[in-house]
Amino acid sequence: MKRNHEERQLTKSEMEIMNVLWDKAEGMTTHEIIEQYPEPKPAYSTIATFLKILVNKGFVSSRKQEGGGKTFVFFPLLSREEYTNRVMKEVKSTFFGNSLKSMLSFFAKQEEVSEEELREIVAMIREQK
Fold this sequence. Notes:
Structural class: mainly alpha
Order of helices and strands: HHHEEHHH
Radius of gyration: 19 Å
Largest sheet: 2 strands, antiparallel
Number of helices: 6
CATH architecture of the largest domain: Orthogonal Bundle
Shape: elongated
Number of domains: 2
Number of strands: 2
Distance between the termini: 43 Å
């Protein structure tokens, strides 16, 4: 059963595969995905299993590779920006009562943001208006 990706979150292993797909910006076969991993490379069956999960969750789709017989090409159904936006909205809602001010204040304190970084952030916010 396929579920809407907006209902689901990615696990760490799923996120690693999505990052490979997002970085490539085009469809990839299972073998091509494995090539992007550092040593020790995961087993083909491991990546194939995670790709099946990502398809079932609605994050990835596939099509048969032209002239490739049984080979499938996998591609993301949403962008990294779309996923990041959804996750950050959920974090803001869940942990900060939907308050952007509270969330930014938390990160500014926790990350020990320098004066220079704060000036840059303020400048970016002003540019958005």
